[in-house]
Write a structure and sequence with these properties.
globular, Amino acid/polyamine transporter I, mainly alpha
Length: about 450
């Protein structure tokens, strides 16, 4: 059964691309050779349609982050949050296009149907400026590190979210409040089961159900938001420089789904439909940004400084509708765990584990050991630091500033080097600015989040 997973790997995934990259640089196997189209040579056993890909992409991005947007706006201010959420959404979409385009160019040059994100980074650096080539061999490990940490971080946030919302409902029926950590432990087996689904095709119906539950929950959320809206003048339009990195991390976490995007594009039946002006990516991101801006703006307008890490926690816990939205969204996030957990398991299995066990007669057993182990890791983190809002900001700032902004820019520089950097090398200048922005976001966001986490833990909250 492990062969099913391996068919998603690129042809020649384990070969050394150094010679091919140098051949391209010397003009042998030139990128001008347009005869090979990687999209036509993909062999995916369970390809997803455009609609299924769109559903997965919406579900992958409409997670816990959207319910955290009112708190994000609390850290940025009303007007500042509105404008910056749109700008960050445009930036995320642009960088994803850069990444997908660069991967396509690399596949075309090397005549392979698929390259993973880490492989693309290595190939790009090998053919880029001389000063970057020495980092080529270590780059796949670095990219995998960020991807795995980020995806496990999302899974950890999902576990905390479900536990917190179940606790909010259950506390209305128990005389003694039970610790959120105990609820987390109760959820271990269900999360192991959802993470045992092994391909995206089987996850599509679950994602559809999750999307239905999500949009139904949005209706209830809006019902509470539009009750007793205060004067908009009561809300500050701009936050402070110290809290803005928290907004940046939360918004980046919410909008950027780079790991899921690459996995989905690689598994599409018609990958050419992914990019383009009216492609799957742009359609999904327009919907996502609209929903995030609306949730953040309206939620903060309604609850102001009382905005919680999840807006569902602001609702009157004794209300039947409040309980309903907590349960519905918890089910949706529980289903989404399967999609988010698919990515780190695939990376670890395909890249680091399968080649060491390929002669084993128990491949399926080892794969399930990995899946269960990944779930246990997220639960250990969730029990250790059950701070939902700060978790969201930290993983967004630390991982996505690199994966979603800096790395795609580095890759584009290398792919376009040396003679395709545009008039006055504007592509080089633009990408250097993106890299600097990503580094600043990573450092400032991580520092602010870690400071808040330490303060929260030391104060016992």
């Amino acid at each position: 059964m492990a062969q099913e997973t391996m068919k998603l790997k690129p042809v020649g995934a384990n070969k050394n691309y150094s010679d091919d990259s140098r051949n391209v640089e010397r003009g042998e196997g030139s990128p001008q050779d347009d005869d090979y189209d990687p999209h036509l040579h993909r062999n995916v056993e369970h390809p997803t349609s455009n609609t299924e890909t769109l559903i997965h992409l919406l579900k992958g991005s409409l997670g816990t982050g959207i319910l955290a947007m009112p708190e994000a706006f609390k850290n940025s201010g009303l007007t500042n949050g509105f404008i910056c959420t749109i700008l960050i959404g445009i930036l995320c979409t642009y960088c994803l296009h850069i990444l997908v385009k660069a991967q396509y160019i690399m596949c075309k040059r090397l005549k392979v149907p698929i390259l993973t994100y880490p492989e693309s980074m290595k190939v790009a650096l090998e053919s880029g400026p001389q000063c970057l080539r020495k980092f080529a061999n270590m780059s796949p490990i670095l990219v995998d590190f960020f991807l795995v940490i980020y995806q496990l971080g999302i899974c950890c946030v999902y576990v905390v979210f479900v536990a917190v919302n179940i606790k909010a409902v259950a506390d209305q029926y128990t005389e003694t409040a039970i610790s959120v950590k105990l609820y987390i432990l109760m959820l271990l087996v269900p999360f192991i089961l959802i993470n045992s689904i092994r391909n995206l095709k089987l996850l599509a119906p679950f994602s559809t159900l999750a999307n239905v539950l999500t949009f139904a929950s949005f209706g209830i959320v809006l019902y509470y938001i539009f009750q007793d809206l205060p004067s908009i003048d009561e809300r500050p339009h701009f936050g402070t420089a110290y809290t803005f990195p928290l907004f940046f991390g939360t918004t980046l976490f919410a909008l950027e789904a780079v790991g899921v995007v690459i996995a989905l594009e690689n598994n599409m039946k018609t990958p050419k439909s992914f990019g383009g002006t009216c492609g799957v990516l742009n359609v999904a991101m327009v919907v996502i940004v609209f929903l995030y801006v609306g949730m953040g703006f309206l939620g903060y307008w309604r609850y102001g400084e009382q905005s919680e890490a999840s807006i569902t926690l602001n609702f009157p816990p004794q209300d039947a509708l409040a309980k309903t939205v907590n349960i519905l969204y918890s089910i949706a996030i529980f289903i989404s765990y399967g999609l988010q957990g698919y990515v780190p398991v695939k990376i670890l299995w395909d890249t680091y584990i399968f080649k060491r066990l390929e002669n084993s007669n128990h491949l399926l057993v080892w794969e399930y050991v990995l899946r269960i182990g990944a779930v246990i890791v997220t639960f250990v983190l969730a029990v250790t630091i059950p701070l939902l809002g700060l978790f969201i900001s930290l993983f967004g700032a630390f991982c996505l500033s690199a994966l979603g902004i800096a790395f795609p820019a580095i890759m584009e520089i290398c792919v376009m080097y040396p003679d395709k950097l545009g008039p006055c090398k504007y592509i080089l200048i633009k990408d250097i600015l993106l890299i600097l922005f990503g580094i600043i976001g990573l450092c400032a966001g991580s520092y602010s989040c870690l400071s808040e986490i330490i303060n929260a833990l030391s104060s016992g909250s």
